[in-house]
Amino acid sequence: MRWAPEAPPELPPGWEPAREVREVVGTPEVVGGGPPTYSAEPTAWPEADPEALDGLVADTVLDGARYGRLTIRTAAIRGDSARYRGQPRRDALLTARFGTGEDALLLVAMASGARAADDAHRAAQDTVRWIAGAVGRSRARLADDLRAARRGSLKSGLHRLTDRCYGRLRARGEDLGLDEGTYTASLRCLLLPADPQSRVRLFFGVGEGGLFRIRDGIWQDLDLAPDETSAPFRFRATVAQPGDALLMCSAGFAEPLRGEPELAAHLAARWGAGKVPGLAAYLADTQTRVKGYADDRTAVTVWDA
């Protein structure tokens, strides 16, 4: 049976019929040599298990906050390769405030699951949840150490919490019957006091990624090799200056920043001199595309007024 086409509906006076829109608005910028291999937009969703829907991971996560002098923007974006293949985002991101008022602590935790592991995204999610829970339960002691500038106590305390987190990961991997070292993730955390009088910024974690600062329009690479006395734990306490932009990121964003000068220059122009983008603009900035880099990107940037 053939159907006769319906006549278009009659429009009210002064209305015009919609026209097909072909132009794509908001395509991420591209820097470096040549266009990237993959499409700029998500393609396929990962396969879902109806009995394990709590393991689903959104393609993109975006968050932000403002506390006194601090303005925070953070984003986690599934990589071009994973988007094309319908694989889940291996990076996990968690933002949390523990406590109230000037005694509160702000935590941003990000983790990247092992590249070849089927449970990489679940390991990353467990990592950020468990470290955040440990930090939250230790908030009073950490806040006291911060006020008293007890760097040694902060380092040893956060190292202990991180070790416990990785102990839980190993135990979880054993429960799942996985090979040793399979159920794991790299971890990067930024701990910030909400007290407007404090300019201390604490970084700690395990594994690859990046810690950078834009000061006076110039990029500074603050990342450290693991402490020889406590490898592979990393710890750094920095003091912010007005106008600083502090960036912590996963390896998927650190690698193009270090490898493509045009990307670093582009973001210095966008984020330097105290320029704080809105959430949508920050997402667009972190999506700036570079040929040859297709991994997940997770980043947090903290601006000091």
TrEMBL record:
One Pfam family per UniProt: PP2C_2
Alphabetized InterPro entries for the sequence: PPM-type_phosphatase-like_dom
Protein name: Protein phosphatase 2C domain-containing protein
Superkingdom of source: Bacteria
Stretches assigned to the PPM-type phosphatase domain: 78-284
